[in-house]
Specification:
The complex is a heterodimer of chains A (410) and B (464). Chain A has eight helices and 18 strands. Chain A has 410 residues and is an alpha+beta fold. In chain A, the strands form five sheets. Chain A has a six-stranded mixed beta sheet with strand order 9-18-17-16-12-15. Chain A has a four-stranded antiparallel beta sheet with strand order 1-8-6-3, with no helix packed on it. A four-stranded antiparallel beta sheet of chain A has the order 5-4-2-7, with no helix packed on it. In chain A, strand 4 and strand 5 form a beta hairpin. Chain A is globular and about 85 Å long. In chain B, strands 1, 2, 3, 4, 5, 6 and 17 form a seven-stranded mixed beta sheet that branches. A five-stranded parallel beta sheet of chain B has the order 8-15-9-10-11. In chain B, strands 18-19-22-21-20 form a five-stranded antiparallel beta sheet, with helices on both faces. In chain B, helix 1 runs parallel beside helix 9, helix 3 packs antiparallel against helix 4 and helix 3 packs across helix 6. The longest helix of chain B has 25 residues. The chains are: A alpha+beta (410), B alpha/beta (464).
């Protein structure tokens, strides 16, 4: 019994995957569950497992090929089984990153123009991608695809807000892409999967999300002292300033549920638990692993978990569950001596705190000049969920906690 | 009885009574004024009784032509047109009573009599004035008409309308049908099946002038097999109406001919029921087309007065009127109704084989200079059709070359009327031919031909 090896949705947002390398060769015996190939998804390098046993008879998408989820990448069958029909019936099977030609050779004369590319999503064996589904008619999808329009940027006028042909036709067309010119002045670099995802997500964010920003300066004297004491206590995990900030934000969110929320189409979801997304820079982008139930975790636990998550993020070993489902984000560029910055909200989350560096500054304390260690926090808010005063009160709580670390455990 | 309603609807046909039900569903106090029977032309002298007669015609043809091959041998077969008429009347009466029941069930007040519009959303029936607080809806419909200019005035015996044809005690020996649109073709089928010698006379170059030329050609072929005479591009220059005979002078393709028949059935054009119902008083104006002048939301020129159904413009179809009734009721209730896609209303002729279509014909695609591809599939290659010995016809889909969107679809088949809706739903939702193919079609069915036609348009047809 032959088994088709299909590109699987290895992350919730994955739409296509790049075959990094096959670990099996054509002719190798494989058994169900064995790892066939390494696949780069939009977020991480994942393993593609065999769903049947037999011989890997055919590799359709070779090393380096990028294919849509649900596309045929190989065939497992008995050694003498006829797989020609499977190969034919599989339809599009792009062997290389170039767009595949329609396999129907010799279209009859009734078809004067090339047949539209078969892009039907219904072939995905894992069902539709979860979350953020955009309602659009098949014709609207095709039109948008051809015009290079992101459907998320089009507002729908059909039943229930469905995007229909008319909406795509009325949407402003994005400027035509620059023609490719060979030049030594710059290098054109193909987008990696993670870069594509970042681009898409951020456009989704700054485009439709009405951001506003709140900045506060925090006196970190006590936090610095507390950290020094704690790290001197025993040989537990070393606690970073970021861990203290994560802990304070989690504790403050538990008191300000109004900022611990998702904006969903037509509703706001407030969370009773705090799942904190922490931005981690990786080689060619960033990823936001999530510390689950951060409000209920001790500083030590958070320190241990954040370190472990960051390491695995840099190694691209996170599983999809580990970087999705956050309710609020913290992004820290203090280590790069950035005084302050504004972060882009990670939808559907409604808020993010951007952390600047801790620096000695002259400030007036009790009527006298003194040098204090200060740090700036800038909160980005989705105004649809968080209003100015709401965000300000929450940020005030965070500041108070950091200025009086004991308040965190209150 | 209360003198005030939220909505008063003039006319209890398929536009008016559906508008009443939707209004009542939306909590509006609603009244329908009807001078005759509820259900209008559709239920009483149109869609419904003619479908009963067409089924009789189908059975007559089945017994006469195919029964023996199918293994059913009958003795002497007699055809009783009177019995067929009786059955059709029973169906009509049941349906009309059904509409009355629906009015009661939804709490709609039915006012019997002829309504006349007054100033400021008032309606007078038999001297009694009723006021609508929200809106008055005109849904008075159309009626049959003759062609007095060429001597063909309706006389109920030799020059008859479909209203008369539906009550004939027996079938005439010969019938000339003026107008080969849906109504003309359906009656040609009925009279032919019951033994009349039928001549169809159409002024335009093809029968079913609004349908795709291939659909008209397929039906022409099928009719000619059954010895129905067809004259297209034919102008009637004169008529002599005798006591038991009518003679028509017909000019067709450059030559003059005389067509003699016992009865002439006028199946061309309908007159609007707009006289003497207070349009001037209320300020309801007509458009240049002769229909009531309405805007895109079906509002007339009088404040708070809407027009729906046949009087609001073509196509004059019951289901178009019903949808307008729903649209207007929702608009009156302050909702935002989904706009009606007039180019996606199915058009159906219920003769044998049936002809059903949506969207553009091939000629219209060419006229609009669209870049399109045609996909076809004949029923002669469909197992289910062969089993039923009903292989006349085809499915034809016109799709855009680039995106595969459905521009038009045409079905000629024994059950085309039931099959067209797959394509109507697809087109309404902007599915392309690929989505049609991707939906698995049961085997064996006539509907497989739709999937095959979609595949044919993609250059991948399987079974031809």
């Amino acid at each position: 019994m032959a088994t088709k090896v299909l590109m699987e949705a290895l992350s919730p947002t994955m739409e296509e995957g790049k075959v990094l390398s096959w670990l099996k060769r054509e002719g190798d015996a494989v058994s169900s569950g064995e790892v066939l190939a390494e696949v780069e998804t939009d977020k991480a390098v994942m393993e593609l497992q065999a769903r049947g046993s037999g011989v890997l008879r055919k590799i359709v998408a070779g090393d380096g090929a990028t294919v849509e989820v649900g596309s045929l990448v190989g065939i497992i069958a008995d050694p003498d089984e006829d797989i020609e029909r499977l190969l034919e019936s599989a339809g599009t099977a792009p062997p290389a990153p170039q767009p595949a030609a329609e396999p129907d050779a010799g279209a009859p004369p009734t078809t004067p123009t090339p047949v539209p590319q078969h892009t039907a999503p219904a072939t995905s064996p894992t069902g539709p991608p979860s979350g953020g589904r955009i309602k659009a008619s098949p014709l609207a999808r095709r039109l948008a695809e051809e015009r290079g329009l992101e459907l998320s940027a089009v507002s729908g006028s059909g039943p229930g807000g469905r995007i229909i042909k008319r909406d795509v036709e009325r949407a402003p067309t994005p400027p035509a892409s620059m023609p490719a010119v060979a030049s030594s002045e710059y290098d054109d670099v193909e987008l990696s999967q993670i870069r594509k995802t970042i681009a898409k997500r951020l456009v989704q964010s700054l485009g439709p999300i009405p951001h506003f920003f709140l900045t506060t300066e925090v006196d970190m004297e006590r936090a610095v002292d507390a950290r020094a004491h704690l790290n001197g206590l025993d040989d537990g995990p070393r606690i970073s300033f970021n861990d203290i900030i994560l802990k304070a934000v989690a504790a403050a969110l538990a008191q300000h549920r109004e900022c611990n929320a998702w904006w969903l189409d037509g509703k706001i979801r407030y969370f009773n638990e705090v799942h904190l997304s922490m931005a981690v820079a990786v080689t060619d982008g960033l990823i936001t692993p999530v510390i689950r139930n951060a409000h209920a975790k001790s500083l030590r636990q958070i320190a241990a978990e954040s370190r472990e998550l960051a390491e695995r993020a840099r190694d691209r070993k996170l599983t999809p569950e580990e970087y999705t489902g956050g309710t609020f984000s913290v992004s820290n560029l203090g280590m790069f001596d950035i005084d302050q910055f504004t972060g882009v909200i990670n939808p559907p989350e409604a808020g993010l705190i951007a952390v600047g560096s801790i620096a000695e500054k002259p400030v007036v304390v009790d009527g006298a000049m003194s040098v204090r260690r200060r740090m700036r926090l800038t909160m980005s808010c989705d105004h649809r969920v968080i209003d100015g005063a709401t965000g300000a009160r929450f940020l005030q709580t965070v500041r108070r906690m950091l200025e009086n670390p004991l308040a965190i455990v209150w | 009885m209360s003198q005030t309603f939220d909505v008063i609807i003039l006319g209890g046909g398929p536009a008016g009574y559906v508008c009443a039900i939707r209004s009542a569903q939306l909590g509006l106090k609603t009244a329908v004024v009807e001078r005759d029977k509820l259900g209008g032309v559709c239920v009483n002298v149109g869609c419904i009784p003619s479908k009963a007669l067409l089924h009789s015609a189908y059975v007559a043809n089945l017994v006469r032509h195919d029964a023996k091959t199918l293994g059913v041998t009958t003795g002497d077969v007699t055809f009783d047109f009177g019995a067929a008429i009786k059955h059709s009347r029973q169906v009509s009466d049941q349906n009309s009573k059904g509409v009355g029941f629906l009015m009661k069930k939804h709490g709609v007040t039915v006012i019997a009599g002829t309504g006349s519009l007054g100033k400021g959303k008032t309606v007078t029936v038999d001297g009694k004035t009723y006021t609508a607080t929200k809106a008055v809806v005109i849904a008075t419909g159309t009626r049959v008409k003759g062609l007095p200019a060429i001597g063909l005035e309706l006389n109920t015996t030799t020059v008859i309308s479909t209203d008369d044809a539906l009550f004939l005690p027996k079938v005439p020996a010969s019938v000339a049908i003026v107008g080969a649109g849906a109504v003309g073709c359906e009656f040609a089928d009925i009279f032919n099946a019951f033994g009349s010698s039928v001549t169809l006379v159409e002024v335009l170059p093809q029968i079913l002038p609004l349908e795709d030329h291939e659909a008209a050609a397929a039906l022409t072929k099928s009719f000619k097999k059954r010895k129905i005479a067809i004259m297209t591009g034919a102008t009637i220059s004169g008529a002599k109406v005798g006591d038991a005979k009518v003679t028509l002078d017909v000019e067709a393709s450059g030559s003059r001919q005389t067509v003699a028949a016992d009865v002439v059935l006028m199946a061309a054009g309908r007159a609007l029921n707009i006289e003497g119902i207070g349009f001037d008083t209320a300020g309801v104006q007509l458009a240049d087309t002769g229909f009531v002048k309405v805007d895109a939301s079906l509002r007339t020129t009088a404040d708070g007065v809407y027009a729906i159904g046949d009087i609001a413009g073509p196509p004059m179809l019951a289901h178009k009127g019903s949808r307008e009734g729903v649209f207007v009721a929702e608009a009156i209730a302050g909702k935002k109704p989904h706009p009606i896609r007039y180019d996606n209303i199915p058009s159906v002729t219920y003769c044998h084989p049936e002809v059903a279509s949506i969207g553009l014909t091939e000629a219209q695609c060419k006229e609009q200079k669209l870049d399109f591809v045609v996909g076809r599939f004949p029923f002669s290659a469909n197992g289910r059709a062969r089993a039923a010995m009903e292989t006349d016809g085809f499915v034809k889909i016109l799709r855009g070359s680039r995106y595969g969107e459905i521009l038009g679809a045409h079905i000629v088949a024994s059950h085309a009327s039931e099959m067209i809706h797959e394509l109507t739903v697809a087109r309404e939702n902007e599915y392309t031919v690929e989505e049609i193919d991707l939906a698995v079609h049961a085997h064996p069915t006539l509907s497989e031909a739709i999937a095959e036609a979609a595949l044919d348009s993609l250059g991948r047809v399987m079974h031809t």
